[in-house]
User: Which sequence fits this backbone?
């Protein structure tokens, strides 16, 4: 292999892109030709310097990008909230509506219901009590029992 | 600094429901709020040991106050009345009851109650109850027992 051919292929050789037989031929020529070996050494040094420069540039750019990337990542994480929290947010109105329904049922019983009585208090004030045709009695058996107004017709209890 | 919610409308139903609950609470606590009247019409007699399941929650009270062995609820009447509005409740044996909420203070309700048998006035009374309170009116005979009216106001 001559010097012209070697210098055409020398960069590919450095990059490791040559087939084995061509690489072997180049290595053979570089071992015997000082100018081509010097050329190869120069190209290798330039390559190393370029890689170093690129790494420095990337490092500096990364420092600038870092806060922005942190915010982007936080946003992504926030959107990727746990399934339960997402469900709670989406379906929060269901328990709220159920609570309203329960309150409505408790406070506005429908007509004709057979639901048990649930008195909250037996505290009753009787302001007036009269009858034109019967005797009426107010019976108070103490706390915990409702007051009773008893109508006695024709002297019967 | 917090990120603004991208879907602010999602909270609106919940806020509306909470506002509705608060409004309902305020409306119900108002002295002039409508009064839900609940009347259980019970026939008490000595005909067998019977306790209507609907009366199970006040079984002890009934048995402490009266000595009947049978308590049968024959009707349950509900009306929601505004202050000044009169509700007529038909009772067995040609009787009727008229209930009128009258103005009151605080969480109390005042009811003007009249029990009639045809044109005869059996009872005229004015009662003051707490909301959720209960009073019993009884005595008129019916079939082989007596009528007991369990009156609740909410």
Assistant:
């Amino acid at each position: 292999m001559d010097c012209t051919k070697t210098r055409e292929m020398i960069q590919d050789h450095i990059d490791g892109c040559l087939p084995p037989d061509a690489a072997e031929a180049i290595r053979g020529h570089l071992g015997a030709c000082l100018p081509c070996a010097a050329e190869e050494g120069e190209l290798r040094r330039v390559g190393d310097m370029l890689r170093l420069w690129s790494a420095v540039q990337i490092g500096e750019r990364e420092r600038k990008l870092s806060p922005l990337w942190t915010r982007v990542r936080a946003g992504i994480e926030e959107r990727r909230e746990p399934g339960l929290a997402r469900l709670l947010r989406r379906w929060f109105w269901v328990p709220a509506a159920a609570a309203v329904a329960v309150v409505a049922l408790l406070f506005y019983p429908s007509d004709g219901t057979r639901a048990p009585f649930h008195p909250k208090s037996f505290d009753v004030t009787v302001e007036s009590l009269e009858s034109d045709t019967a005797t009426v009695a107010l019976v108070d058996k103490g706390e915990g029992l409702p007051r009773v107004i008893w109508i006695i017709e024709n002297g019967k209890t | 600094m917090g990120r603004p919610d991208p879907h602010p409308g999602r909270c609106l139903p919940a806020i509306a429901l909470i506002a509705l609950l608060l409004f309902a609470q305020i409306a119900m606590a108002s002295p002039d709020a409508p009064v839900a009247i609940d009347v259980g019409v019970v026939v008490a007699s000595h005909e067998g040991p019977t306790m209507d399941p609907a009366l199970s929650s006040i079984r002890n009270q009934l048995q402490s106050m009266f000595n009947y062995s049978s308590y049968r609820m024959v009707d349950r009447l509900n009306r929601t009345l505004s202050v000044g509005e009169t509700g007529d409740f038909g009772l067995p044996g040609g009787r009727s009851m008229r209930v009128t909420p009258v103005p009151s203070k605080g969480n109390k309700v005042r009811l003007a109650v009249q029990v009639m048998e045809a044109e005869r006035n059996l009872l005229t009374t004015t009662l003051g109850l707490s909301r959720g309170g209960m009073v019993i009116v009884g005595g008129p005979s019916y079939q082989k027992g007596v009528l007991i009216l369990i009156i609740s106001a909410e």
